Amino acid sequence: MPASPRRATLATVAASAGVSVATVSKVLNGRGDVSPVTRSRVESLLEQHDYVALPQRRRGDAAVLDTIEVELDDDLNAYSTEIIQGAVRAGAEVDAAIVVSIRTDADRAGAWARGLATAGRRALVAVTSELTAEQLTALSRVRLPLVVIDPLNLPQTRGVTSVGSTNFAGGLAATQHLLALGHRRIAYLGGPATAACNQARLHGYRAAMEAAGAAVLPGYVRAGHFHYQDGVTGGAVLFDLPEAPTAIFAGCDDIAFGVLEAARARGLRVPEDLSIVGFDDTQVARMASPPLTTVRQPLREMGGVAVRTALRLAAGERVDSHHVELATELVVRGSTAPAPPEGSPRPPLTRHAVG
């Protein structure tokens, strides 16, 4: 994040408004003995200066804990639930409170950042968020440390601290597993094209395919979102290609579950006709039918590392690295099998209703 400017004080606002510090304090506390004109001027300057009235922290007050905001940019899913569990567990270990929210007003960057600081948050952990320069600047102005888990974009500002996994190695391992099973027509169905984690997984896939001399056929790489429905619709498009893939590497488990459903709707058997590999290893992966072969991200550990790093930043400590990557691991289950013999007929593609 950019160098943090000095936090605005009551004296700063009072000097700008041409009134006393006591008058500014009265406005903040909703006192009635301030003229409407003065009140309006002071309130406007409080907003311009990004003034934040922090809660008082009293020694020995058990109710006042370090509070970390874990903010999602989408509804809860299996991935974010794992992250939150790790964050909550880490918070309990260091006597910090974890507040989970879904971002709703980040378009108003200044008000969003001031709201977090005014609520007494010591730091923000953003999960799979796409951050703008305005949002980063707003957080810096209120001196609120930020840690991002699996950022969807690569902020140009230096110093943004992030936590992720070895996405390239995971993409490489997933594709090498399918190649070792004899597959050559392997497609990649991923998330947003600009997402850093998706780019790394895609690069791992391409590196494995190139090393094996396996061509990436036209239409075999598709970008979308990390959502179940993208697996359903993307899988259907892949099955309609002139040379349909015999294996699909999905950029996350939710996409893989969508591909499973698309295969079921077409009468394709997994893994006899189609092998599928996911990425995440959420709890649902073990309960899928068949159980999903996937690349395990240490999601709970990522949540814990993010919280501990955020607290260190809030305490004014320096961190050794602005980006931490935890190791991934391929977990082989029942959704992958040797490729069907070349030229063997697939069952007819019957179309059923897809839920």
UniProtKB/TrEMBL annotation:
This is LacI family transcriptional regulator. InterPro entries: HTH_LacI, LacI/GalR-like_sensor, Lambda_DNA-bd_dom_sf, Peripla_BP_I. PANTHER family: LACI-RELATED TRANSCRIPTIONAL REPRESSOR, LACTOSE OPERON REPRESSOR. It comes from the Bacteria. Residues 8-60 form the HTH lacI-type domain. Residues 333-355 are annotated as: Disordered. Keywords: DNA-binding, Transcription, Transcription regulation. Residues 338-348 have a biased composition (Pro residues). It comes from Streptosporangium lutulentum.
